[in-house]
Amino acid sequence: MGKNDSYEVFVEMERDGNGEMGAKIKKKKEKKKERMENMKKEIDIDDHQLSFEELEMKYTTSVTKGMTSTMAAQVLERDGCNELKPPKGTPEYIKFARQLAGGLQCLMWVAAVICFIAFGILMGQGNLTSYDDLYLAIVLIAVVVVTGCFGYYQEFKSTNIIASFKNLVPQQATVFRDGQKFNINANQLVVGDLVEVKGGDRVPADVRIVSAQSFKVDNSSLTGESEPQSRTPEFTHENPLETKNIAFFSTTCLEGVATGIIINTGDRTIIGRIASLASGVGNEKTPIAIEIEHFVDIIAGLAIFFGATFFCVAMTIGYRFLEAMIFFMAIVVAYVPEGLLATVTVCLSLTAKRLARKNCVVKNLEAVETLGSTSVICSDKTGTLTQNRMTVSHLWFDNHIHSADTTEDQSGQSFDQSSETWRALGRVAGLCNRAVFKPGQDAVPIPKRDVVGDASETALLKFTELAFGNIVDYRNRFKKVCELPFNSTNKFQLSVHELEDPLDLRYLLVMKGAPERILERCSTIMIKGQELPLDEQWKEAFQTAYMDLGGLGERVLGFCHLLLNEKEHPRGFGFDVDEMNFTTSGLCFAGLISMIDPPRASVPDAVMKCRTAGIRVIMVTGDHPITAKAIAANVGIITEGSETVEDIALRLRIPVEQVNKRDARACVVNGGQLKDMSSEELDDLLRNHPEMVFARTSPQQKLIIVESCQRLGSIVAVTGDGVNDSPALKKADIGIAMGISGSDAAKNAADMILLDDNFASIVTGVEQGRLIFDNLKKSIAYTLTKNIPELTPYLIYITVSVPLPLGCITILFIELATDIFPSVSLAYEKAESDIMNLKPRNPRKDRLVNESLAAYSYFQIGAIQSFAGFTDYFTCLAQEGWRPLLCVGLRSAWENAYNQEVQDSYGQEWTFAQRLYQEYTCYTVFFVSIEICQISDVLIRKTRRLSLFQQGFFRNKVLLSAIVFQLCLGTFLCYCPGMPNIFNFMPIRVQWWFIPVPYGILIFIYDEIRKLGVRRHPGSWWDKELYY
Amino acid sequence: MSNKEEKPADQNQSTWKDFIFNPRSGEFMGRTASSWALILLFYLVFYGFLAGLFTLTMWVMLQTLDDNAPKYCDRVPSPGLVIRPKTLDIVYNKSDSSKYSHYVQHLESFLQQYNDVDQDKKQPCVSGTYSIQDNETLPKNSCPFKRSLLGQCSGLHDPNFGYSEGKPCILVKMNRIIGLKPLGDPFINCTIKKEGSDFNMVYFPATKNFDLMYFPYYGKKAHETYVQPLIAVKLMLEKKDYDNVITVECKIEGSSNLKNDDERDKFLGRVIFTVKITE
Fold first, then answer.
1. Rounded distance, CA A139 to CA A105, Å?
2. Does the first or last residue of chain A, that is N or C, have fewer Cβ atoms within 10 Å of its Cβ?
């Protein structure tokens, strides 16, 4: 299987490029195909076939002394550092330029240019009355640049998170140069270097093995196979990927020691080539990016539409061209929500921060929301769903299956340990074990300690340590005389010990191994401390237990022991494991112990949460189908009562073919079956079986599964850690890399990194993502509302020719100063209902900004706000001497800079500057009206359905402080000396603050009525039109 | 208006044409006729209510206003100064009457309200004191300002106001502001801004001051017949001054509550104009 798997990597990739899968990626197809060809060619490495002499010749090196340092320096200069180059990113200036060239930004540029032109023309004509246009142009450009910088900074920061991951631990390697052993940074290695790799190290480059002692590597990051592979100097296969004498870059050495000559470094390594291939897979646009783009387009379109319409209206009414252009500009400024992009970015980064505290680091801000719309999670098993640590889970002795405690913190129930048999079984497990704890870990809880030894021995060591206490001491009491390590031919391990009691001179032989092999050597069985003859009845009991445990997907070991006959084996007997000069049959069977990598304690809950949240969890693992299924059932991916086709067949005693496939909710597919499946078949499978487990899959097949899910319209989250996962991670709507076990390539390709590798963290992420979608909706609704009271002054100004009620600079202050904080504060709003009980949103139907949201904000709340503004505006004018009817048609006299004696309704004569300050007073009054209404607006936006009294006014402290801030800032702008001439704010009379208050209350009451109607009559006309 | 809100609707599912009118479902712009009727009715009621509310508040607000004086005079604490003829650049050829006749006509028509016949009907006031009339009687009495006070610039003796002889009259007038009571004894002082040119200026009335009896002003409804006091300045230009652009600044002085040096407002208590006369 292993060999097939490793070859599969390339078979799969090839299919991607040429087969029907690749048809989707049409653009890249040709290029990819070409690269594929190159890759196939390059894989023709012949280094594994060369003899050591030829190798030495080829790389000017020595298999004993290594290279000379001068030669190494030369080669380093030629080949460059031994590291994977990150995929070529977009140049920084382009990234920055992109931030400045969005839809809204372009509009702002246009507005700024119009301002400049207007300013230029006025100056050219010599009738410059104010620098407002120039001023406004500069402010507009500043706004674009500042928001651009902000966005760029966000992007830059998230890129840096990844960079910091990379530089965390500079890898060290042991190298021989000039015949001496050095420890150098792995990136300084060159082709031809002689390196030494030992257990726990990462292979620093592609290495041709020269010598090896029980050297085993974990190729899972390359091929996905989780079984350790042994590596020896012998050339075993023509294919470089299958031969045993090459160890690949970035794979880890599990045990043993080896030396080897480096044959490839950096990007020329196999993994480097795959990593560069991964960058060819297109990155999917995040749903929120699509939403925002969609909505920015509409806003930009509407702004241009409004601007153009009123440009035409102004021209027909008889305004001059330049004036009409300025109107166009002003309408654009009024209609474009300048602060919106900043708000969205801040909201998302707030959530990203919140997530980071919960161990999810988000690389791409928009991914925060993607998580919320996720409908399928393809999860790894090992490490994500499980603890990634073999643990004893069941024991069989005294003809009973006992469950052991598999929880991470040993909080579970243990079995009854009073039986004599248990003591015997435990003794065998403790003694017949070569694993030892790494030193200096006394403070660490036993399950978390690092161990030298293979997985099952580790599990047994920890188990016995927990059961008996200090196992080192225990082993010392039973002095070991000899031992035979486990090997694959006899499939057992034995050791001989002296007894604890110094007077008892017998030797104790303990043995563990494959249960059937152990049973063969036994003639008795220990039941309740009594040795009973092992008759057929016991054998059958053994078989049942063995089958039961195996069916749970657990790794089962048998244990037996024997007190050796003192006469045949007296003290000082020369035990020889090669000769086997001692009794190894007729032993006493003690019991079975089975082990599994148990699920993390939080996972079943998390999977359950996913299920209630309408998210499908698909397990994709390289592990054995039975184990995969057992874990899936354990964590709830396969629910109780769900059956696979095979289960039904077994239950009904009919052949698999006769089972109605629709009856089976669950389905376990292994990689072999998947390979022969067409994409339609896979789609069918995914459609018909809600509970899917893919076992024995290679990471490449993950990509196929992801694509299939996406074809079915799902938003897919994928977890992965290996280099080969990176194409799937990129292809997924949201790629989630594992922070602990993940490779750099995976982290690079992912959108999010789970620092604790825990599946449950994804669910937290989903919750936050859904919350932010809701809250963004509220934020946007809040932000959009004020565009109408900003726009209507211009429309009235143009059509009715009243003095301008609201200036462009004032608008920018509302957009970018006073209203930013409240709109961001909505991101802190708690969910209205249990969002984890709802289905994921349908990206095609549940838009971020939908028709009713826009209509409600613009035409209802926005309209009320406009009326509030105009009420305050006309009141202010009337109380200063300009009655409403006089104002109509007043504009040309009002704005005539040469008319210093315009009469108001009372016969007073006003100079131009006096009228201008009155106009600024109007701006300020209108500004205050919008602010007051926006306070009401931010309150009503706290909920979309619930009454505000149900949600609580004071729950969101940030929002309250935002309102206070908004009021303070408004007051400051109004009453700070110097403001009139800088920002066109005037100190206004206190009572004008209170004129819009009734409108604010009206907004509040109206919205409460709306929500009441929505709650009381779901599905009614009211609900459809007014619920956003 | 309402069709704007349709735009966000899903465009990629149906084609553009279908969106405008879908013959299968009878949908126009994404809504059926009845749906349109309902939503339009809703908005009609909604805006009707808002407009009603707006009208009501406006009406209430207007009821609180005084007919005679504005509630506040925050933006007009100090009056502006303007001149007649109503321009800041007086340019003409003194030998060509068509070039200055519009100035003359303008002055003549402006002075119509100051005709002695009309002004004589008014009760004379006490010079040098405010004409305070805080009682309720309407209309308020306004003090006469006779055109003849302007002497050579009254147009009574010289119908051309000196324009034909190259010695034009300029009338300086202070903006009306309700309730304004100038302190001290405000007078007009004009200076020639450009150095080198120097000529006489003759003021009418010769005291150059605005008599306090013309203040305060009670608003156009209560003070229907009110006329503002004027000061005429006759620029005694000579031949050497012809063809030059002469800048003259007139300021109001002698009163502590009439500002004449505001940085932003160049017309507050002062006025700058240019004169250029050719032969």
1. 13
2. N
> Which of A908, A924, A982 has the most B C-beta neighbours within 10 Å, making it the best mutation to test the interface with B?
A908
Residue with tokens 């959530």: A351
Rounded-to-integer distance, Cα A502 and Cα A400, Å: 34
| Phi, psi (rounded to 5 degrees) for A256 | 85, 180
Q: Enumerate long-range contacts of A892-899, CB under 8 Å, 24 or more apart.
A: A892/A801, A894/A803, A894/A919, A895/A803, A897/A127, A897/A129, A898/B88
User: CB within 8 A of A290, min separation 6: which ones?
Assistant: A843
- Asked if residues B219 and A907 have their Cβ atoms less than 8 Å apart, the reply is yes
Nearest to B7 among A302, A867, A909 (CB): A302
Exposed/middle/buried for residue A46 (C-beta within 10 Å: 0-12, 13-18, 19+): exposed
* A chain contacts of residue B177, beta-carbon cutoff 8 Å: 908-909
| Residue A651 structure tokens | 């239950």
Measured over the CA atoms of residue A361, residue A365, residue A369 and residue A371, the dihedral's sign is: negative
Q: Which residue of A has its CA nearest to B3?
A: A855
What is the residue extent of each domain of chain B?
A: 11-62, 81-123+145-210+226-278
How far is it, in rounded angstroms, from Cα A773 to Cα A331? 29
| CA A975 vs CA A139, A920, A921: distances in Å | 22, 13, 12
Peptide bond into B216 cis (omega under 30): yes
Nearest of A762, A693, A758 to residue A408 by alpha carbon: A758
Q: CA B78 to CA B269: how far, in whole Å?
A: 8
User: Minimal CA–CA distance to A319: which of A793, A794, A791, A787?
Assistant: A794
* Lookup: tokens for A103: 């839809």
Q: What is the pTM of this model?
A: 0.78
Strands A752-754, A734-738: pairing kind: parallel
CA distances from A556 to A396, A511, A696, B184 (A): 10, 14, 20, 113
CATH architecture of B81-123+145-210+226-278: Sandwich (2.60)
Q: Pairing mode, if any, of strands A555-563 and A507-513?
A: antiparallel
Helix, coil or strand: residue A919: helix
B91 close to B279: Cβ distance less than 8 angstroms: no
Q: Which of B10, B76, B272 to mutate to test the interface with A (most CBs of A within 10 A)?
A: B76
pLDDT along chain A (1028 residues), means of 10: 38 38 41 47 67 83 83 85 68 81 81 86 74 83 84 69 49 82 83 83 84 79 64 80 80 81 82 65 65 80 86 86 84 84 82 85 78 88 81 88 80 76 88 84 81 83 85 86 79 86 85 89 88 89 89 88 84 79 86 88 89 91 85 89 84 83 85 86 89 83 87 89 75 85 74 85 87 90 93 91 91 90 92 85 80 90 96 95 93 90 93 93 96 95 91 90 96 92 90 95 96 92 88
Cis peptide bond upstream of A87, omega within 30: no
Q: What residue has token string 């003409």?
A: B92
**DSSP symbol at A207:** E
- CB contact under 8 Å between A880 and B71, yes or no, is yes
Hey, what are A531's tokens?
Answer: 């040795």
**B6: contact with A, CB 8 A cutoff:** yes
Query: B21-22 and A436-437 as β-strands: parallel, antiparallel, unpaired?
Result: unpaired
Find out whether B178 and A906 touch, Cβ atoms under 8 Å: yes
**Which residues, 6 or more positions from A971, have their beta carbon under 8 angstroms from its beta carbon?**
none
- Residues in contact with A579: Cβ distance below 8 Å, sequence separation at least 6, in sequence order: none
Give how far Cα A379 sits from Cα of A256, A693, A705, Å.
32, 10, 11
**Contact of A645 with A671, CB cutoff 8 Å:** no
Any B CB within 8 A of A1022 CB: no
Q: Does B41 touch chain A (CB under 8 A)?
A: no
